[in-house]
Amino acid sequence: xxxxxxxxxxxxxxxxxxxxxxxxxxxxxxxxxxxxxxxxxxxxxxxxxxxxxxxxxxxxxxxxxxxxxxxxxxxxxxxxxxxxxxxxxxxxxxxxxxxxxxxxxxxxxxxxxxxxxxxxxxxxxxxxxxxxxxxxxxxxxxxxxxxxxxxxxxxxxxxxxxxxxxxxxxxxxxxxxxxxxxxxxxxxxxxxxxxxxxxxxxxxxxxxxxxxxxxxxxxxxxxxxxxxxxxxxxxxxxxxxxxxxxxxxxxxxxxxxxxxxxxxxxxxxxxxxxxxxxxxxxxxxxxxxxxxxxxxxxxxxxxxxxxxxxxxxxxxxxxxxxxxxxxxxxxxxxxxxxxxxxxxxxxxxxxxxxxxxxxxxxxxxxxxxxxxxxxxxxxxxxxxxxxxxxxxxxxxxxxxxxxxxxxxxxxxxxxxxxxxxxxxxxxxxxxxxxxxxxxxxxxxxxxxxxxxxxxxxxxxxxxxxxxxxxxxxxxxxxxxxxxxxxxxxxxxxxxxxxxxxxxxxxxxxxxxxxxxxxxxxxxxxxxxxxxxxxxxxxxxxxxxxxxxxxxxxxxxxxxxxxxxxxxxxxxxxxxxxxxxxxxxxxxxxxxxxxxxxxxxxxxxxxxxxxxxxxxxxxxxxxxxxxxxxxxxxxxxxxxxxxxxxxxxx
Length: 649
Hints:
The protein is mostly helical. Among the domains are: about 10-135, Serine Threonine Protein Phosphatase 5, Tetratricopeptide repeat, CATH 1.25.40.10; about 570-649, no CATH class. Helices cover about 65% and strands about 5% of the residues. The protein contains 33 helices and 7 strands. The termini are far apart. Mean pLDDT is about 85; it is low at about 1-30, about 135-145 and about 645-649.
């Protein structure tokens, strides 16, 4: 059955030619009461009839008069009090009336409408079957039964089609029967026949809004968006109060990326029908796109309240909640979605990401694994699981997952960079370099890929290539401080003092609150024998981050090995290195070297020698030359004194 087309009791009343005459069973007394029409009513404004209301329709009272009630109908008008009953009492009163007057066809029709509104379709069918038994015109009775059967099973829909074919054999221009048959053809998947019937309806009755609505819906289903838009626009001109037509046209505008027009139409649909689930759901999606997260969450909440098993609504709300800082609620929504449908791939991916962010690595891994069980071609799940396994230091497993992801999507540069990091962690520098090279060929503006390539080349001793690629990283992202710092380190080792200082100063301009550029610049001052400036940068770095290990180790080393004894400060050096040891994660070679220098300055050369050996065990190969020199000094029972590697010009 096409969404938005409901059981048309007003049509049934018109086809039957029923003469209404049900006396009042109850009277509404107050503004705000919900009331049900007990019989067909003329809605009047003054002497003018503005609408005809069918029995069983429900409205809210907006104003009262001794003999009349104003209802929240558009256009506004008044109905006689005696023709309505309070909504909570109408069903019981109509049942009493049917018991007393078994032939009262109006009461059956009104009660059927209430049953239908309550979702009691079988009871509504029973009342309408009884109404059919009282019909006098067989053809018209078939039309009524067809209207009823369209709400039932596919088998019943076929029976309804038989009834409509019989009616149309007697009256080929029966517009309402043609409309119903067109609707049934659509429901039965017979699009060509549906088009033919609906086109004929529009030819017979060009002001029939439901025919345009149905044809527009069919066009939308078939992707004929221009036709759908035209038909929905005509529908709304003929019946601007048809909420589903506003919702459908909003969907068309959304499909055409006319976001503002789509939201406006969804707004109108919801104004007319606050529980219009289609409009709420689609508007929620569009509101997220314009960062209106709170409003989107409200829409998804209404959808969930009306359809508690709507998995996609839970999922989409879970994606909007983090923007409002509601991370726990987001995870709760994902849990609810997966309790309803454990195979929902997007929810598994989202929950896995959330768990990864919370540090729940094993549970995140399990979600991504489940995702791949349900969809082995889900390359994103391989990539996400690789990230988890990288964080668990399972580098080979991360490489395998990223290889699987790249097999399905071989031009995903981001995954190449991630696999390069895993190879690098495994010590496979050439494989890591090859991946980075491939990544920058595909994404030649990926600053992070160039940065990683420069870092790997530096570790492999290819310093000239590293500078070229670090420069490319900076060109693509002039605020990438890590690229400036590594390029500065290479230039510092080559005694290119001016360009080194320029890189450090640029990094500090970009990130004045980052202690790392200060720490690195302090090393430059040391090499240039500007020890006071070095101490100043170390202290400034520690002011920004008192737990900065490189700065603690650097200032301790400096104050334990000043070439000018006037600046030696063994006590402060010991304080700094002791604090560094307390913070040291594992064995940091910089802290170990500083401790060795402090021990040597205190005369404990044997322990200084042992500590220097320990530092060498954890030191990158490219930094070992000076460390070996210090080891020899301690073996010879000599303290270390800082001396420049080369004379500064």
